[in-house]
Design brief:
Blueprint lengths: L9 E12 L2 E10 L3 E6 L9 E6 L8 E12 L5 E7 L4 H21 L1
Antiparallel strand pairs: 1-2, 1-4, 2-3, 3-6, 4-5, 5-6
């Protein structure tokens, strides 16, 4: 699976998303989110390692989708059917980065309240 993650992931975190490869959109679920990347589960075969794609997802209180450029780092069949693959986020713009960090901080705040 290559290089191990360097940033903490928030889990359990699952939200519906689409991933866009070239002009094709595929449904999936964004999981195990971090500032640097995430895991995606899809019924479609995962794109090959090294593929660049865009993750479209609604995060936080956003009414529209956030577009996160990413690169596929690994792909494997899922024990639940379909495929799961890891992505690292590439050059996320300022507004998307703020939204991503806000979602992570909100998740941590809620988790601390439950602890």
């Amino acid at each position: 699976m290559g290089k191990q993650r360097q940033t903490e992931r928030i889990q359990p975190f699952v939200v519906a998303c689409r991933f866009v490869v070239e002009e094709q959109r595929f449904p999936g679920f964004l999981m195990n989110l971090s500032r640097a990347g995430a895991r995606i589960h899809s019924d479609s075969e995962g794109p090959p390692e090294g593929t660049t794609l865009t993750v479209e997802v609604r995060m936080g209180r956003q009414a529209t989708h956030v577009h996160l450029p990413a690169t596929v780092r690994w792909v494997q069949p899922s024990s639940r059917g379909g495929f799961v693959f890891g992505v690292s986020f590439d050059s996320i713009a300022g507004e998307e980065q703020k939204i991503l960090e806000g979602v992570i901080e909100e998740f941590r705040r809620r988790a601390a309240q439950l602890a």
